[in-house]
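hiii, so i know i said id send this last week but things got crazy w the move. better late than never?? heres the sequnce for the chain we talked about at the cafe, plus the structure i predicted for it. fair warning i was half asleep when i ran it
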Amino acid sequence: MVRIVGIDPGTKTFDVVALEDNAIKVERSFDTPLIASNPQVLVEAVDALNPDYVVAPSGYGVPVTFGDNVLDARRFAVEVLLLSTEEDISAGVRSGEVGIWVYDALAKVVSHLVSRYGGKTLFLPAVIHLPTIPRYRKINKIDMGTVDKLASTFLAVYEVSEKYGYDTNRVNIVVAELGYGYTATIAVKNGVIVDGVGGTYASTGMLTPGAVDFEVVVGAKTWKRWDVFHGGVLYGTELRELDEIIRRFENGEEPYASMFKAFIEGVVKDINRMIVSTPGADMAVLTGRHGKNAKIAKYIGDLLKDVEVVTLRGLKGASKAKEAAQGYAAIGEGIVGTWFKDLVKYMGVESSCGASVDYVIHPRAREFVARVRKAYIETVRRPKLCNEA
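okay and structure toks below
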C-alpha cells in the first residue's frame, strides 16, 4: 500500500492526513499561529508519518509538479505558490501579521519537503490551471479557487458520485467552501470543474473583504500583501467567534446583523453565479470550517430555490480533518496510486498547465504577471506552459 500524506495550510489550522487506499489512517491538526511561529512542528509531524509521498501545501497552485523538478524551492514557494516576494514576506513578518507569518512558514515547509523527499513531494494545481474551464471564464482572474478549494471539490465529486454508482458524468453540483478566512464557490458540470470564484474575488468572507469596488482600490492607492486578510465579517463585527455573531444577528443587533447577512447572501449569490455555468445543478455542497455549521446551512438553504444543501461525510476513517486535507491526499493518491486514478484523469488534474497569472490582461499588472511567469519558468525543470504548440 502507498501512504500519501496531504497537508492543508488553512488560515485557522494546518491539517495533516495520512491516506492509504481510500481510507484516512492518521489525522493531525495544528493551530496556524503555532506553525507560523515554529514550522518545525509541522515538519516533524510529517516526518513521523513515514510517507511514501507528500502532497505539499500548494497555495495558488501550479501544474502537477514533483519535487525533484523544483530547482529553487524557496523562490518557487514565495513567488509561484504564494504570488509574493521576499520583501512582502519580510515586511509582513516585521509588522506582526499572522497571515504573512503563515506564508513564511509555508515557504520554509516547502523548502524542507523538497530537500527531504525530492521526487516524493507533489504540488497540485488550483482551479484556474484546469483545462476543463473555458478560457473566457478565466480572463482577469487568478483565484477561481485555490488548491485547497480544488481538493475539497475533488472530494465532493467523489462522494456525490456514489449515489450514481460512481457515474461521475452525472454529478452536477456547486461546491461552496466556507473557510475561516475565505469563501469560494466551484461549478461542477458532468463531473468536471467548469467555473469558480474564490478568495478575494468571491463575496465577503470571515477575514477577507472579498470582491472590492475598484473605486475603493484606486481611492486607497497603497495596499500591502497582507491586506487580503482584513475587511471581512470578523473585522466588521470586531468579534472572533462566529456563534456569537450569529446570536447577535438573530437578536437583530448591529453591525452583527448586517455583516452576517452580507456573508450569507454573498455565498448564495456566488452559488447562483455558478449555477449559470452548471444549469443542471440541484445540489450545493458546503465544505470548509464553517460549512458544517447547522445554522449557516439553514440560512443558505432558506435563500436557495430548488437546490438541496448538503455537507460531506468524508473519506473512511476521517473524523476531524477538513475536506481540503482529505482531497489533497486523494488527488495525490490518484496521481501516484490507483484508487483515485480514474477520477484524477477524468477531472483533468494531470492536464493542468500554465501559471496562475496567465489570464490577467490589465495593463497595470504587466510587471506582476511577467515576474510570476518568469519565476515559474526559472524554478521548475520542464515547466508545463499552456498552448506551447
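btw The domain at 3-379 is CATH 3.30.420.40 (Nucleotidyltransferase; domain 5). thought thatd interest u
miss u guys!!
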